[in-house]
Amino acid sequence: MRDIEFSTVQKERMVSKVKAYFDSELQQDIGSFEAEFLIDFFVREIGPYCYNRGLFDAQQLFNERAEELGYLLQELEQPEE
């Protein structure tokens, strides 16, 4: 699997969210460097679990839709004489 990469804007938003979380939930002020370091850790260590779950969910949805499509195609069949 390739490394998960984010744009600069996405990274800035994530850093902002982590800093806000630490402030509101833990009453701790952390810097941008620390927040980015924490994000990198979670992406590297926890990211694969989230990614794999997303793939699993997508596969389930795909299978459900493919099954529905199969039924729709059967309904289009014409009687043969």
Write structural notes for this entry.
This protein is mainly α. The chain is built from three helices and no strands. The chain has one domain (8-74). 78% of the residues lie in helices and 0% in strands. The longest helix is centred in the last third of the chain and has 30 residues, at 47-76. The protein is rod-shaped and about 80 Å long. It starts with 7 loop residues before the first helix and ends in a 5-residue tail after the last helix. The mean pLDDT is 94.
Question: What can be said about this structure in brief?
Answer:
Helix content is 78%, strand content 0%. It has 81 residues and is mostly helical. It has one domain (8-74).
Sketch the major β-sheet: none
Class of secondary structure makeup: mainly alpha
Order of helices and strands: HHH
Mean pLDDT: 94
Give a count of the beta strands, DSSP E runs of length 2 or more.
0
Q: For the record, give the distance between the C-alpha atoms at the N and C termini, rounded to a whole number.
A: 53 Å
Our count of helices gives: 3
Q: How much helical structure, as a percent, in the residues?
A: over 70%
- Low-pLDDT stretches are none
- Alpha carbon gyration radius: 22 Å
Beta-strand content estimate: under 5%
